[in-house]
Amino acid sequence: VLIIAIAAMMTMPLLQEQIAAREIETIARRFISHAHFARQQALYSGSIVRIRPRNETDWNGGWQVESVCKTAVCEPQVWLQQAKLETVVIHTRTTKKGQQFTDPQTGRKQIVFNPAGAARTQAGGFVANRLIMSHRKAPKLEQHIIMSSGGRLRLCNPKQDTRACY
Question: What are the CB-based long-range contacts (under 8 Å, 24+) for 21-24?
């Protein structure tokens, strides 16, 4: 029994790290699937759809997929929402590559898909940058959600895919 207890104690940190990595990946894949939904909804409805933080400034408070109204009479329709993130952290640090999908013209954090399904800024330019996610209990574990100029999103682990992440 003592040998089994010692073996369990030795493997516990590895197990916790694996659980943290799985939680980061789950949230990152959920974000990507919600962004894909927003793009498909823009294509299907022929209107502008966006994914944005629920509290307008911080992705850690969750996000939502909604229609964008061009007039004051219109009421935006919210299709999907993600609640506040408890264990996974979306880094607030911005770097040249990690800009948290911030629109350079408005300064708002969002991804806007036009009716053609392209991710564009309000001025019509491309939005291509990333979100960097880590875990509260294992901050060294990271996943990057990278969006290309065409609006395609991919998940990247900088420790495993060093060439593909940068």
Answer: 21/135, 21/138, 21/141, 23/87, 23/88, 23/135, 24/88, 24/133, 24/134, 24/135, 24/141, 24/142, 24/143
